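Run Sulfate transporter family-domain-containing protein through structure prediction, thanks.
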Amino acid sequence: MSPSGSAGTLEGTQPVPSDQDVDNENMTGICATVGCYNEADPTVSDWLRSLLPSRKGVLRYARGVFVFTQWLPRYSYGWIVGDCIAGLTVGFVVIPQAMAYALLATLSPEYGLYTSFMGAALYWLFGTSKDIVIGTTAVGSLLVGSVITSIQEQRPDVYTNEEIAKTTSAIAGMILLFIALLRLGWVIEFIPYIPISAFVTAASIIIIATQFPALMGIPGVNTRQAPYLVIINALKGLPNTHTDAAIGLTSVVLLYAIRFFCARMEKRYPARKKTWGIISSMRLTFVMLLYTLISWLVTRGLSKEQRPFRIVGPISRGFNHAGPPRLDGDLILLILPQLPAMLIILVIEHIAIAKSFGRIFGYTVLPSQEMLAQGASNLLGPFVGGYVCTGSFGASAVLSKAGVRTPLAGLFSAVVLVLALYALTAVFYYIPMAALAGLIIHAVADLPTPPKTLHKYWQMSPFELIIWVVGVVVGIFVGLEVSVYVTIALSLVWLLVRQARTKGSFLGQVHVYRISDRGHLSSSKLEADTDDDNGPGSSRNIYLPLDRRRDATNPSVAVEPPYPGVFIFRFTEGLSYINQAQHMARLITQVRANTRPGRVVVDDNTTPTPTSNNNNNKKQHHADENSDRLWSDPLPSPSALQAQSRLPRLRAVVLDCSAVDQIDITAVQGLVDARNTLDKHACTFGSECVEWHFAGLSNRWARKALARAGFGTRKKTVLGIAHGAPGAGPVTRRRAGTHETEEESEMARLAGWSPTYYVVGEAGGGRTGIAVVEGLNRPFFHVDLTGAVDAAVRDAKAMEGKETSHVGVCHEVGCPSEGMSSAAGPLETV
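Sure, done. The structure for Sulfate transporter family-domain-containing protein is below.
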């Protein structure tokens, strides 16, 4: 095997056997017995054709965009009562939340109502969850506020807060729509859960810190500073606390008291659990109305300077801020750098909420379609005055508890919000700012990850807990956007390190028996064969790691190698350019340490012969081996040579590829290099003598790549012996003793390869008989590990028989000096 490759081929690969390389007579015999099947390689044109949509696919895509066309025609009028009650309930809950969260975005309270209205009005057209509510959220509003603050610092008084918020929402909507229409929702799977958990925890702490001065009525605190500075300045300003503290603190206490009381009532009266749940959900609206009434009684007729506490003040009636967003080039360039982190958080938060309710109620949520609903809401929201919106967990939980039946409930919520904008703006004028701050703190206080969950993180994956801590610290002291990028980068690095340093497993086999659920199995059943492959008494081979420290099975079970010289190696986390070097290094090291070199005599001036008792031959052998030894290899001691001589010769490598899908060029080259190295180690005369079996590799492109590198097939080699050669004598033909049945032996003889699998029964198309499961042209690709090991062991036994025959032939007729493989086919005379 030449170590160098020609252009266009992998280095060190051998020419790929073509169909003409297969013995026609043998193939004819197999085809006559079981029928022919040769595995065909996939082509680029096939791949391109698979990407072209069919007419049905186009229609299915169009219907999938507007999901309501699938469920609305089947709408039951019995559902309308549940949707109406749930929608109206959520509408009243959302009103105070939306107004409070708008303040986090440094906007007037009515902008929160605009945002929630558009989400409620549009989601039912595109969404796939009945339980989610799109609107303002604490985290989303905080991100919008940070964008506004950042741009105002760079371009003071050039753009208004409203213009920045609306343009940010429009650009985010365009991006989400683009991703959704291309059905790229799967990209969110690249974002792990830990960065999001760390971000939400850090954001919650920041929100509480920024709302604390408003809760306590402490003036002069810049809430746009770093959170730790806000907390320090707020604590310094406690002596300047105003009457707002009485409103803020009592509102928080009242909110928690109502929640605690309703939770107790739910446990005490399970039959009325739903009623108490709705009452608990309405606590936000109740508290806001209560303190609005108190504020009206206290502050009516007073000027701004005479009021004992701050109130919201004038709110525009209706959709007075409706209009297109300002798509100014400079403004867009200022917004774009801050959009990635915002989009990641908004999308992950929304889909996580939708999927959680989908798991609870047993329906499927489509990420791409949810992103489409988000994109539409964010793109069209600015036209009525809205800003960035996403799924709200608190409002969604209320909607679910209220007994929602379909996404149509959002329309009823939208009606409530419209009524609030036109009929209640005069009432909203008197809402105390401290009460809104208390509402925000109450809403986000449960968002940080609790210590119990952190303890679970530590038990499951300590390093990911470290990433979480880093994310929280960076989010609080540096910035939320930086926290997102840092934690995602650390998670990806951790993933790549685990992939690169993964350790494959060498497997051994254990013969197991199936017992009944009573746990009784007689010894007679262990010895007897059963026709029931799955019933009590049936047996099979299973494969477990030889290194029991990395395995969870019973350590007292003895695991044995399948056969001397046959190694089973499992790729535990796939095979790619990232980890192929690690896998191949371990494979080569382990195999070489547990097998003896195949070359016994290496002498360019004499004919190679098998092991001899001649002392001169032994000395020559040692001298030549030392001359061929690499400078980096240690000189083996006599005791090491003696121990090495007792090791088996390498016969076959079986690769368990059940965890492998795609294989890249680097991985294939690694396999080729490993094959070359082990061939040089094991083969007696420098030819290919080690079989490589692949189990569980189903991807056609991966199989094609390996086949192009010379794996999966081999040429049938024939040893010709001329009559009248010096010293020639009668030739004795012997076959290795195996346990094959006559049918298996005949099939292997016809093929000249490892036996392939055959199934008895229906062969397809209503025909019955024997059908080939695997391609005859690639017999070293196996459906499962059992078949691969059986074939490798069978061939290893056959090799031993052929080597025994070869020793006799060499003594009688002489041996060629090169070009013969110990894995050659049946000896034939010419």
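The radius of gyration is 37 Å.
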